Model the fold of this input.
Amino acid sequence: MLEIKNLHARAGGNEILRGIDLSVRAGEVHAIMGPNGSGKSTLAGVLAGRPSIEVIGGEVRFEGKDLLALAPEERAREGVFLAFQYPVEIPGVSNTYFLKSALNAARKHRGEEELDAMDFLKFVRAKMKLVEMDEKMMSRSINEGFSGGEKKRNEVLQMLVLEPRLAILDETDSGLDIDALKVVSKGVNALRGPDRSMLVITHYQRLLDYIVPDFVHVLAAGRIVRSGGKELALELEKKGYGWIEKEAGATLSAPARSQAS
Amino acid sequence: MSSAETLEQLTKREYEWGFVTDIEADQAPPGLDESIIRFISAKKSEPEWLLEFRLKAYRRWLEMPEPEWAVVKHPPIDYQKIVYYSAPKQKIAPESLDEVDPELLRTYEKLGIPLLEQKRLAGVAVDAVFDSVSVATTFKKELEKHGILFCSFSEAVHKYPELVREYLGSVVPYGDNKHACLNSAVFTDGSFVYVPKGVRCPMELSTYFRINAENTGQFERTLIVADEGGYVSYLEGCTAPKRDENQLHAAVVELVALGDAQIKYSTVQNWYPGDAEGRGGIYNFVTKRGKCLGARSKISWTQVETGSAITWKYPSCILQGDDSVGEFYSVALTANHQQADTGTKMIHIGKRTRSTIISKGISAGHGVNTYRGLVKILPGADGARNYSQCDSLLLGEKCAAHTFPYLEVKNPTATVEHEATTSKIGEDQLFYCQARGLSAEDAVSMIVNGFCKQVLRELPMEFAVEAQKLLGISLEGSVG
Done:
């Protein structure tokens, strides 16, 4: 499903990703963990096509296609979904209108018929129940005045509606209390299936109690320094990130300024 | 591609309405002097008092300085190069649409304004003004049943001279400003509406202005009077061919609302804005003002300004009657090298008068967008209230937005609130939409429409759809 090879990327003048290799097969859930500044969000951003991140080397294949050659909207229509760490507010544009446009853009791309307002509402209502969202939220402007938890729920709702092939959750757990975390996890788990893969990016092990990963990778200074099963997350929880950084070598804890051009 | 480049490309635009109608015109020679004014007046067989009004205005105009306070730049206008009268050659006043030149009907059809009986827009009566004259007015008979008068200004001068004489210049005096003064001297046509006591106009009235002839100025004059308890919703739209020379459009609109009357005036202005390098385009120098003469009357202006090289207009309300209400909702979009200096004046005279100002300015490319507004509360306006909100949205790095709110409060019981914001379409918003599968173009159009929502929802349905499309189209371009 997703094949990342020797990926190097730069943001704000610094080389953040310094050779990522990762292979995700259909149906798998991979957790990406790591300390702050290790490149987790940059990895998520590269995959979704965030324009402020510059790829300087390596390749990414998504279902055989060169993902990096596609515009962000093309990636989305192909089935890549990024749940944002900081969902963006867009005043005056209703959630319903936004989500319907997004869904229909994807359906059109797949050669399916676009949903009309009635069918769309029916479809969304069922999904809203899963994440325990009030229907009133749909007529509100996108994320405007939403609490942190509401924004994250909205991201998961969008994911449920768009039914992506590859879902990337960028610290979806940050800023959530335990109840909200459960709700969000329930939504995510509802989407798990043999045709769908997930990259769950998180700083804490806590989320992985609810979304149980098949694999855990530890990112440090722009490289995956350790991979393992779900027990790796528990080990990290106990020992912190320090030991892994040490183990991986002193060079990683002090990343050099980018020399690449 | 960075979002700055994306926006840059998005704001390059194509103008769809830039075609020219090939039709023989009856024209005055270019230039302006008293003989041209007499020529126009004679063409329209006007009464002596109207010729006097024009000549008085002309003499005043000669002495008046050009207004120079607006944040707009243009070379001095050579008034002697302009043609002040141009009419398609046809019977001056066609009795029915069958007598209107088919070429003209086709022109309006192409603009999406079918005039023929079987194709008319349901629920909208249209007065079609082509260069200097009104060529057709639809649904006239239907309206007459309700006692509503809707016709070209020229026709009104002959048919309802006492109404025209009473109200012409009563809201915008001929010497109000240089552009209004020029209009008073040379105005050629426009629309006239009278809604009698207690009548609610059953359909939207609208005027569609089209400039066609080269080197011609359009100087239309609109007068709308709603008698006690009357209600009317009036729309205007406008387009012009693409040309490298600037063309002048100096209109005057006067609204009068008597006791308990309501006038809703909506504009979607889409004059040719000039090309990407700023060549050509219409100078849209317009004076629009309404007077809430009677108690509890209400005048509401809604405008979506996407066209013109330069827009200079301040639809205003004089709130004379006690408890009268004035509203101004505006979206002004400037792309490429367009300049807009627009806003409103709310003059509170009567007690407990209220006004609302919502202004949304969008600047893209090298566009310059200025909001200029005056809220004036006079000593007698006890308990007057105003709320103003001015938001600016910037797309790209080379555009500019200015806000000049003036407040003059001479009554201590008045409440005046003003809010202003300036924001940029961020890379974040754009990327968020794209990450959900929307193209950059659709994303910008969606964000801009969201930004304008407060204003767009004030427009009548048919117009709101057109305006939304226009905002999208105005920002459309190739995205690489």
Q: What stands out?
A: The first strand of chain A starts at residue 2 and ends at 11. The first helix of chain A runs from residue 40 to 48. The two ends of chain A are 30 Å apart (CA to CA).
